[in-house]
Design a protein that fits this description.
Layout: E1 33-39, E2 42-50, E3 53-58, E4 80-85, H1 104-117, E5 123-128, H2 130-142, E6 146-152, H3 158-170, H4 174-186, H5 202-212, H6 214-217, H7 231-234, H8 237-243, E7 272-277, H9 284-293, E8 298-302, H10 309-312, H11 314-327
Parallel strand pairs: 3-4, 3-5, 5-6, 6-7, 7-8
Antiparallel strand pairs: 1-2, 2-4
Length: about 325
């Protein structure tokens, strides 16, 4: 950590003080507020920025942090009070000794605890990727607390998502696929140095998150800084293995197997936007099904876009979300 040292110079009393420059109008200032909410014994990190009605944002992973959404969603702060959280075990939120406590159901209660503690009243809730799963689960239990729901690049069924993942795996270049499957057959954990044993081998990470996922992450504006191996250090691995599973990227066999929401989607009655990229890792057909099942929902499929549609089509994405939140 770098600590900036500020040198303060004291001027003689005889020196005429300079007039301080006028501050900009308050509407042009976006201060950041951050802190922690003790959610029934788990400290959940939050960050608030913006003006307007509250829009809480829950991130993907599971097991990363909200940072990847920034600064891409920042323009929404012009019309909304954005509340980002790091889900339990992720980012700056508290890590738990018992990984079995990393469940969608517990994370729903964390979201509700943050809403109550910050006295937000009714909120709009936006979830991207796994965060969209969490947002759906919250809506099933607490939709009386919602004004809007935004489901971005997500899925409603782990069994259907496993079919999508299998298709994406088969589409990998043959040589890369053969290497990936050999690594999976050999077992993905407990390999290498002590600090490497709890995560994917670097070769597997590069194959899965590179050759496997990259075509479905970006289309129009691939991130030049994207490093498929970086996930090995960005993910909370005990959480990821508990929820996603231990058998690789292309099968969900952790506790997320319980996510089967098809028959519950029709119970959502708050205004809902379903948004994804046309080349989304969470195949657009999943978004179409959610749209069909949620009465009155709006579906936006952005062209030339992957899972990170807010990177590929930033103006379209922000406009679609902002107009939806403002117009209903």
């Amino acid at each position: 950590m770098l600590i900036a040292l500020v040198s303060i110079t004291t001027f003689a009393q005889t020196r005429k003080p300079k007039t301080a420059p006028a501050l900009p109008a308050a509407s042009n200032i976006y201060q950041v507020q951050e802190g922690y909410v003790d959610a029934h014994g788990v400290l959940i990190y939050y960050q608030i920025i913006g003006h307007g009605a509250p829009l809480m944002v829950v991130h993907g992973g599971p097991g990363v942090a909200h940072d990847y959404l920034m600064p891409h969603l920042l323009p929404l702060a012009r019309g909304n009070q954005l509340i980002f959280i790091d889900e339990r075990g992720s980012g700056r939120s508290e890590k738990l000794e018992d990984a079995a406590q990393y469940t969608v159901e517990n994370m729903v209660e964390d979201v509700e605890s943050v809403r109550q503690a910050l006295h937000l009243g009714k909120i709009s809730l936006m979830g991207h990727s796994f965060g969209g799963v969490l947002a759906q689960a919250y809506a099933f239990k607490y939709q009386q607390n919602l004004t809007h729901l935004v489901l971005g690049g997500t899925f409603y069924s782990s069994s259907e998502m496993n079919k999508v993942l299998a298709e994406e795996k088969r589409s990998m270049p043959p040589e890369a696929l053969a290497k990936l499957e050999a690594l999976e057959k050999a077992g993905l954990f407990g390999k290498g140095k002590d600090w490497e044993k709890g995560r994917y081998p670097d070769d597997y990470a590069k194959l899965a998150w590179g050759d496997g996922y990259f075509p479905y992450l970006y289309q129009r504006r691939p991130d030049a800084n994207y490093d498929p191996a970086s996930g090995n250090t960005a993910v909370s691995w005990d959480l990821y293995r508990e929820m996603w599973g231990s058998d690789g990227e292309f099968v969900i066999d952790g506790n997320l197997k319980s996510v089967e929401y098809l028959d519950k989607l029709s119970s959502i009655h708050v205004p809902t936007l379903v948004i994804c990229g046309d080349h989304d890792e969470s195949n657009p057909r999943l978004s179409r099904t959610m749209h069909e099942k949620i009465a009155g929902s709006k579906l936006v499929i952005l062209p030339q876009s992957g899972h990170m549609a807010f990177v590929d089509q930033p103006n379209m994405y922000i406009k679609a979300v902002a107009e939806f939140l403002k117009g209903m």
